[in-house]
Amino acid sequence: MDTTQDLNIFLQEDSLIDFSSPAVKALAESLSRGAKSDEDIARHCFMYVRDNINHSGDHKDDITTLKASEVLKHSTGWCYSKSILLAALLRANNIPAGFCYQRLSCSEYQEDVYCLHGLNAIYLKEYGWYRIDARGNKDGVDAQFMPPVEKLAFELEENEFDLEEIYSAPIKEVVHALKTNKSYDEMVDNFPDIKKED
């Protein structure tokens, strides 16, 4: 992961990472209460999104949320949307947060299909960049927050790979998919994907 980037770009608000919206701002403040470090705050934010926001695929929720305030309002989102809410909560607490992606098999939805999986990288004062995955746990998925040890939702298997960059905003393929596909079935048929460059 590139650690030379200016951290300020990972603290910005935009139309999707809308951390000034009242509900997101209030939640960010409540999650920081009593925390003694940026690591404590980040853990609280991670656990909230992982455990309190449904993963739309796991729950077959027939709504596609995009911006942070929508994800919080409806308490559901695909991994991409959950990563947007988590970034908003962290940035509201002045913790740099970016977006990472993996290309994984989507066999639980369709055979022989690959798609992007969305997660976050955060910058902690003690450890630097650290990847976390708040998609939500279930049988066979156990993502945790235990820096500096990385415990993501999925281990890479054959033909799967990490996109190495830490992005300051969700990538266009993901945003397009979330804007275009409004139901569970539409998303499953049109997951965002990027093929590896040779």
UniProtKB/TrEMBL annotation:
Residues 25-134 form the Transglutaminase-like domain. It comes from the Bacteria. Transmembrane segments: none annotated. InterPro entries: Papain-like_cys_pep_sf (IPR038765), Transglutaminase-like (IPR002931). It holds the Pfam family Transglut_core. SUPFAM superfamilies: Cysteine proteinases. This is Transglutaminase family protein.
